[in-house]
Amino acid sequence: MASHIVGYPRMGPKRELKFALESFWDGKSSAEDLEKVATDLRASIWKQMADAGIKYIPSNTFSYYDQVLDTTAMLGAVPERYSWTGGEIGFDTYFSMARGNATVPAMEMTKWFDTNYHFIVPELGPNTKFTYASHKAVNEYKEAKALGVDTVPVLVGPVSYLLLSKPAKGVEKGFPLLSLLSSILPVYKEVIAELKAAGASWIQFDEPTLVLDLDAQKLAAFSAAYTELESALSGLNVLVETYFADVPAESFKTLTSLSSVTAYGFDLVRGTQTLELVKSGFPAGKYLFAGVVDGRNIWADDLASSLSTLQSLEAIVGKDKLVVSTSCSLMHTAVDLVNETKLDSEIKSWLAFAAQKVVEVDALAKALAGQKDEAYFAANAAAQASRKSSPRVTNEEVQKAANALRGSDHRRATNVSARLDAQQKKLNLPVLPTTTIGSFPQTVELRRVRREYKAKKISEEEYITAIKEEISKVVKLQEELDIDVLVHGEPERNDMVEYFGEQLSGFAFTANGWVQSYGSRCVKPPIIYGDVSRPNPMTVFWSTTAQSMTSRPMKGMLTGPVTILNWSFVRNDQPRFETCYQIALAIKKEVEDLEAAGIQVIQIDEAALREGLPLRKAEHAFYLDWAVHSFRITNCEIKDTTQIHTHMCYSNFNDIIHSIINMDADVITIENSRSDEKLLSVFREGVKYGAGIGPGVYDIHSPRIPNTEEIADRINKMLAVLDTNILWVNPDCGLKTRKYTEVKPALTNMVSAAKLIRTQL
Ligand code: GLN
Ligand code: ZN
Question: What residues bind Zn(2+) 1, as annotated (predicted)?
Fold first, then answer.
């Protein structure tokens, strides 16, 4: 019985690649230094999988930046602006595409399906020339082989590559990207020929777009591509790997009828229908790579349950055709539990990071083959049982309260326009009120204070004094700038989710549980392991302290339940919505405590609400329903006179605008810096929007300081479609990553612009 791993994290157990990349980019180390770190990482990963007994070990899943960008390099599809002149693509051109350089901006980056990983979007058009320009896949195959490991080289499949790309600048929007299939396949053929010549006997094509809603034309492209590649592929075992959801029935039919393909990889964790599809018809003689071990989470697998799934599959596809695998690449989970020395042993026994998942896959394969490691399975069963029964996981009171929310609705009693009137009577704000999104620059000094407090190097008293001073500076600055609704600046927060997770019960934190987000950037999501409750107020002290420093309204600042959920590793023993409702109840308490403490404006950030949208349209409504409901729960019982704001980090919500309205916030501030047009078109099309709205008037992601005129211009554009009395003026996100030398002039100009337009109304 065989085992397989779809892909493995590249960063290294201690983010070695991150540091090597950043040092190279800063000119502090050479290309050879970087290559050495990368070579060592690859070698240790291959060795680890080989030692664990994995039969099908992937290669070319390493990347210096991104696997889609690697494919762009392989195809020589370098956009013209990088002035690449041919030959093998080196670091210069590669990193210029990824990060831009002094003269040319980077290529666009976007989310990889519903993960928190971001890939570099290929820019293609009718004039793109494709040539074989990066031999990385073949080189890595040979490198592993020289180490004695015969790997399965992995390529991003040709159809997914095209479906994930966009028309280059100057190319018409509707350009049929799939028409480039015949231009890229010759390069794929060259790569395949070289891999064969180097001794490869398997090849893996990642075609995750197969889990999306695809029309007949796109499906036809899959058939066409793999038919066209058939002779090139002959003599190879060909695995088409899908992940992140099940493959829809129609696509499943197309996929499983491809004669050049000999093996199919399916995500059996998120792909809830796949099992049924396989049962209802799987082609004879083909391999099934069964992704039973979850690559998207950090939980130890329930081995007994996986084993029984595998056994039922074995009965259908045959003993020698079933391969145990991961649900997707392990790059979406943390690297190695061994490095977690601070987690207690009980929680640790419930977890498995990438390194542990490799062992799980192998153990399952061996068990299927009749070599079950009884002790290992018994330890796993004991851990599963302890997780089920641990009082740390279950809080009956919370469960009862969360269950009671289901099926019923929660909204504020009064409608938004009446509430806004009541609030205005109290707040007495000018038209086009100005505000900011929450955070102010986080200086080196501030980070040091937090670090030292955490390490107990300074006392609580010293810490509080330092943070109070910082708040007081931020409050004074905002008063000087004449901003209308103030914030405290969030100096006590390292991260908008971690800060709350640390104070809620049911959360655990890792020391090294990093997951690649893009390039060298990694995130360390909290782990939600138990029922969530809020033992104590989390922000009331800081918000009331800040409010006491000014007579202007001070916004309380919270992270919303959906964002906390979407940016954490969540429980797999209950539905996501249930966890979300629990967090909503905890945040509700905080909202009510803030109100009781005299805070009149409370912002509940839902930066990541859109990120949680399921991959398939049919599932959107259900998600949006519970996500929006969770948000409403947090503030359903507060007074009309308390103003609830929310903030979102994207403006492309044309498709979910009705859900946004349904959140029923009094004011929403949103990112809008890169396209006024897209956002405004929603309102131009006649969507009725009665709540306050603050589309960001300048881009905080750039150090550039906008002048008064351009900000005024943008405000005027918005006034053309939105009522004067609902428009707010604010930057498009928090100011945490900016410097004061940028923030002060930018906000000065923002306030001037608002004042200028007020005089013209
Ligand atoms: N209130 C947060 C801040 O200002 C919001 C951050 C975000 O939207 N990502 O930093
Ligand atoms: Zn934001």
Answer: 647, 649, 671, 733
